[in-house]
Amino acid sequence: MNILVAERSDFHRNGIKWMLASSGCEIEQYTEVQSTSEFFSSIETYQYHLVIIEIEMLIDDEWKHFKKLTNHTTVVAISDKKDFDLAVKCLESGIYRIFIKPLAIKTIMDVILKVSSDSKRSANEGSDSDLKLDLSLVKKQWVNNLIYGHVTHVKEVWDQANLLGCRILPSVVIVCKISYLREMTKNKSDHWKKQLMTTIYNKVEEFCAQYSLITIKNYDKFVVLYSPKKGEQKQETLRNVKKISYELFDWMNKETGCTLYIACGNEYKDPMHLYHSYNEAKRLIDLEYYFSQGKVIHYADHPQLFNDNIIDEIELLPLGDELTKENLPFIFSQLENNLKVMKETGVSPLYYKITLLYILSQISNLFIKNEKDHFKFFLKQSESVINSETIEEVLPKIKQFLIELADVDANSFQHIVIEKALDYIHENYVRGITLEEIAEFVKRSPYYFSHLFKKVMNMTFVEYLTNLRIKRAKELLMEGDYTISEIASLIGYQDPNYFSRVFKAISGESPKQWKTKKYLEQTKN
Asked: 0.70 exceeded by the pTM?
């Protein structure tokens, strides 16, 4: 099914994209536009089964052109407001449904599924008539039925195969993707991207014709079906698939300058099971993140791939008490070791990205005292990690980030840690805080934090906490008629007698004597 979404809001456009992805529909062509000019350019150059449009994008003169679209395409309108006149205008223009934001997920999903079902039915009906036969459509439908597991009878597969001139059924699925496609199409219109994809696909089709391979364009990927020669054994099939894949890789690079990432599934002689080969190739495509210059990869060569148990065996980066130039190489080598394990075992790149973000958050938390600044920094780093297409994009940025942190003066670094600890102490001294609690807050061991605190503050943590409490106690003694028990409770002491002993040890007098003395001094003045 071909779908066009015209919506100015990034939020709503992404929401619609999520609903479409969650619907389970087979989407061959998905296009997004943000302006009216892009919208009309798209519908003039391509035929869509479903169009979802923010109806406020249309102005008066554009409605008459828009009406032609509804004659052959299902159009769903979305609007920010309830407007009776607008609803009537939509109905008169042949719009199928109109929805008011915020969108009701279930209702719009029902519409998407119905349109998908109708488009399939139309395709099936069209293939029954020799007069209206479109071999391109038959080929696309046939391949999709095979790779998505929609085959119900082998006879049905053979009938369409004979129609397409295919004398041997395919047994291996190859999926190709253009490396760095997002970078290539950055700041380009959907129309430009569509033209690029068509040009590349035509070249892929030209190559495949030399080997009698069947190929279709599937959104931003190309699916190629390999049919073995008569009597060809499994190992020979594997060699031939590899040979053709490498030739396609080199030929496309020479002809177009584009680098392909080519993934090959295993062989399945039974056409009812060919979808397994497609699923294997598709999973391999997800691993493109680990390869920066394109690659030809075959599922059979990596039996250890997609071992979910390996995640439990990967150790997160151990962070010491300080990040220094001395331990920087160790930290980065640990990152690269994790990458190697994940790459070799086919762990989802998403897991690797999450691991990177966790490590960045832990490290930056050691240096950035303000929580708001820490969050802003984390969001910025998250964007670069999540949006990276390959590991080659993100690793140099991570390394540079670690180098910059390691260049921070050691004394400055230590003071940052102590400042964070002091802020925490001043906010929580009224309760029974401990050295272990604060050490955990600043992400240090109690032993290291105790020595660092004394080094920077020239007193122990207990001495500092005690002096802070006694200072506050003196303020309370002078502020009002608090009892000794009340003051003790307000500064973190549960036992008033213990508080009095500590007060006398620090000040040389009991709280009552100190207050009387200060009162007399003020009276004389």
From this structure: no
